[in-house]
Design a protein that fits this description.
Chains A, B, C, D: It is an enzyme of class 1 (oxidoreductase). Chains A, B, C, D: It comes from Colwellia ponticola. Chains A, B, C, D: Keywords: Amino-acid biosynthesis, Arginine biosynthesis, Cytoplasm, NADP, Oxidoreductase. The structure is a homotetramer of 352-residue chains. By secondary structure, the first copy, chain A, is an alpha/beta fold. Chain A contains twelve helices and 14 strands. Chain A has helices spanning 23-33, 56-59, 76-82, 95-107, 126-131, 138-143, 153-157, 167-180, 227-235, 266-277, 292-295, 324-338, and strands at residues 13-18, 38-45, 71-73, 88-91, 111-114, 145-146, 161-163, 192-197, 218-219, 240-245, 252-259, 283-285, 301-308, 313-320. In chain A, the strands form two sheets. The first copy, chain A, has a seven-stranded parallel sheet, with helices on both faces. Chain A has a seven-stranded mixed sheet with strand order 9-10-8-11-14-13-12. The interface between A and C is large, with 40 and 40 residues.
């Protein structure tokens, strides 16, 4: 693949963000504005978006003077004119858009980091059930790499199409995988994942459900949320997933309860987490139950657990920022890994 | 006026609420459900409302089992069939609806308590400027009584058409009038009213502006808010009105700064407030700066002031619940007064 | 028992509230101020409280002009002078105070409604472990009736000492008991109760942990919360209880996940809830996942459930106001039942 | 002044933060951790602080792995051992500590950036009235430079002792000074500054007033807040300052109302702001009323104004993050300027 490079520093990658009007897109813009190895060439919105032609910072006033690029509308013509000159594209788009367009970017030599759910589920037959559409590109789906940065490093390093994990799955899998990969969990036992998300998880839109006055704590989509199969797939264990929304803006907590095999010791549980994360700078094993206030606006995942030896039950809780570690900063981790950079590159000193 | 009375207790008034889907309408339903001298006959929504046919408690789950009446759509046919049998109607409607329909209800012998702005401004020429429409009924406008319950008791007692004050004007006027009616304020001086409202003040609707994630503290409509002429009209003094929205649900604070005439004493200021409100059970003269937390979900107005004798400046602050004292409970006060009941009747033991 | 009755209406009961400075105590005052069959004679605070001598409404400005009684300090002298003339006393006190003083009131012929945890656990040996003190009155403990109003009606009706349930246990047990009493749950299976409470659950006090800026969503006391044995005791089933605190003031949600026996049908699950609650006016079986916004400041419990027939798993969620149904309004239910009144008497039209 | 320089890069300055346990101190740590021309040598807390010996990140979990330095206690011995080796010290301390210790650091050749109020008021006699203590060092007070970064650049560049402005004064003065320095305001007219701050403004402490459940919108310290003389001093105009606290964590809004001289035009007003700030990268003249959500967690000040030509009244509103532009990031601006760096150096890519 050859790219026309205008920069003198030829390691700087030219990127576009498709879907820059939403919260995940906006954070991508902020993170990439502060990334010395990436240059934002285009901010793109959907074809009929009312945001077309506005400045990014008109929509997201927080970023005024950080990034004042205009928002352009996606179209085939736009793709034909600009796509081939890119090194990477980030999709913060509807799920079916990703499914429809990922291969075209790949064919143009552009790496794709997809923050939608369009490439997360391996079983194409789950798409009609959980996403409401028939997946348009089962070939691309088969090639996509699940981008849980702390667990799929080598696959991501070689990937051209990365399915950036969902917010709940990120916190849930970071909690579950140390236990499941070490075979500590009783087979076929009930595994309960309770998730609680801030309202940014519902997206940037006009709806009565997200009206300030209407939002209050409640469960939703219990037993039918599309993140349930994603968690089960990647943890390789059936889970019951109970998502909740709570009245705050950013941050997500997953609290997981599991029955461990007879004879599993507290030390084995501790070892499972320590060995998984001691060399992962964006996962912090904290000494008390993690709180949203410590991870909001950061790329970190904070994890704590407690094991009841009488009952052989462990409870694990993981806190992340749903828009960062649960979306945009994890996408940057994937981009970094795929670019040969450290996973956390640029993320600890983020733009406002 | 003769009404067909089916109730054995002929003092119970038959009422309807037009606009029962919004926040003010919902509180009216709650308050009237707990009012022993009123019986809710109809809950009405606008002609093309998506709420038509639903139960009131489907929209406002808080009131489930308190009031489960269906929402019916307003129409001329509805009016012809049901209006004449009512004793009173509450409008929690768009401003122009009130202007259009008040006289018809009056002609049918129904008292009108209008929570919209349709009858608040005396000068009809202000309607195009501040409300965006030409007032359709200048005759009715001339007859309407401004319903600031603590100040217009006798007028309200004899009124058939009451313009229930706006939320900001209620808190502002309760602060200003003791000073202006006693002629304590320097003529033509700058009078600054800073208002801060919770997000319910923006109504129950689907908009990006009221999305939970988008709401934060800011000024809005400064120097052009429609409550500025309403405050000036009723206080009989020009004011600068700076409204703000802040990230909480219910409650409104007005903080007013005025230059008092040379020679006015602290005792005169105190007397002005004490004489105005010592016999008003829903106005509490509190000993520290009033706070929203003490008035939210109550019909009270809390007032405190401080006078700087060096500068002859007084600052007055008044806190109310914008949906209750700033709308629905004040409407009930007006209804009570017009019905010969004490102003605060039923309000201190409100339904949930 | 004979009481000197000064009221002409001899059905009005003379009550005192011990612990009127906290949130549960304050709500008791509000509820009893609006209760036509109760008369508040005394508001009492602990012996060395800084609140002694202040007016109740100085501490709780919301209730100014609703209740302006002074706060008096508890002491043996106070008890000797006033206790015997009471009909009922409400304890919103430290757990050990209840344990120490309940029998003395009982001996004086005063019914005791204890909102502390002092009489909730049947096994006295659990007190050192979960409450940090040796229970001082095991005789009284043996006689205390657990006051889950919808399930212990007949016992409460005949009780002199009622242990009003904790907030988490109330929501959890209302969710669990329809399933456990019908033997639908797999024996020895993992039962996970996730609880989320607003910050009022942490009490009214000065602490860094409850500082506005420090509060954020997190788990706490997992596997060691004192409500875990209370839930297990009353549901007669071992549970894992994961409590969380979230950044809002009032309301509590319990989301419970259970494995049901093979062959249990959706209809059986539905029947269990409907038969338990169809005649209980303060439990609302709602058609979508219950939300805090609908129960905050109300005496209701809202319940919804979903059954996955493939997995034989049911998830139940119950929302309550932690200070009302989780404390004070349930105490009033118990008082009503013990007084021969309907459980919900006076609660639907509460004081502000 | 000669410093022992161990760094190979001799432009990197060695700094200490006195008062690292509070919110302003914590943000200083975060900002300086990300500042390539500063090296944090010591984090210091007060002599008897319970935080002594803990890690900074134990208090402020958000910064875990960003800065895990221990907190050491200030003492004369500490000063004697470490002060002389520093290039700069930041005081986020009680006001009287600054007054007591600034000169000692200056004598040791250490530049002092004082975030307390210890050196803000020029008139020493104001300290007993507004700060409750007699200023201990009137000589140092006379030398201190007020550090409003956009207005005192040259003075700060040459200063050794900088009084970093208060939060309210920063937002107020950025609003007022363009008008006052251009002599647009009517002499001796009423100038009203309404300020609204989030709860971080009340500091990090255990108090009932800042308990999550107790906080609600209210005015406080009206006509007697210590920022009133500070604003008047630096704007050279008497103001009435009405501070409010509102239920959110970070951010501060000042809304200022002024009477302008007859004949002043809208263009003159616009020019005053544009000429003041067009070359100031951290002040953004925004096209709609500024909102807290756009400045929280950023070093920006957003300003908007509206002029009523009929009344010759202008309203200006300025939003800042009270802990950043109102404290810590403005301190870094001062440090940058005094170090010959651009004012905004390092601030746009801040640590989490």
């Amino acid at each position: 693949m050859t790219k026309a490079i205008s920069d003198s520093n030829n390691s700087i990658q030219k990127v576009a963000i498709i879907g820059a009007s939403g919260y995940a897109g906006a954070e991508l813009v902020g993170l990439l504005s502060n990334h010395s190895q990436a240059h934002i060439c285009h901010l793109v919105v959907s074809e009929n978006s009312s945001s077309e032609g506005k400045l990014f910072s008109d929509l997201h006033g927080r970023f005024k003077s950080i990034c004042d690029l205009p928002l352009v509308a996606f179209s085939s013509a736009w793709f034909d004119e600009y796509a081939a000159d890119l090194d990477a594209v980030f999709f913060a788009t509807p799920h079916d858009f990703s499914a429809d367009w990922a291969q075209a970017f790949l064919d143009a030599g552009v790496k794709v980091f997809d923050l939608s759910g369009g490439f997360r589920l391996k079983d194409a037959s789950d798409y009609p059930k959980y996403y409401g559409f028939e997946h348009a590109d089962k070939n691309a789906l088969a090639k996509a790499i699940y981008g849980l940065a702390e667990w799929q490093h080598d696959d991501i390093a070689n990937a051209n199409l990365v399915a950036v994990p969902g917010c709940y799955p990120t916190a849930s899998l970071l909690s579950l995988k140390p236990l499941t990969v070490n075979n500590l969990v009783v087979e076929n036992s009930l595994v309960v994942v309770n998730g609680i998300s801030g309202v940014t998880g519902a997206g940037r839109n006009a709806s009565l459900a997200t009206n300030f006055n209407e939002v209050s704590l409640k469960a939703y989509n219990v037993l039918q949320h599309r993140h349930q199969p994603e968690i089960s797939q990647e943890a390789d264990i059936a889970v019951i997933f109970n998502p909740h929304i709570a009245p705050y803006k950013r941050g997500l907590l997953a609290t997981v309860t599991l029955q461990l095999n007879a004879g599993v010791t507290s030390a084995q549980v501790d070892d499972a987490f320590i060995s998984a994360y001691s060399d992962k700078p964006l996962v912090r094993l904290v000494s008390s139950w993690p709180e949203i206030g410590n991870v909001a606006n950061t790329p970190f995942a904070d994890i704590h657990w407690k094991f009841d030896e009488d009952k052989q039950v462990v409870v694990v809780s993981c806190a992340i920022d749903n828009v960062l570690k649960g979306a945009s900063s994890q996408a940057i981790q994937c981009f970094n890994i795929a670019s040969g950079l450290p996973s956390e590159y640029s993320l600890l000193n983020k733009a406002v």
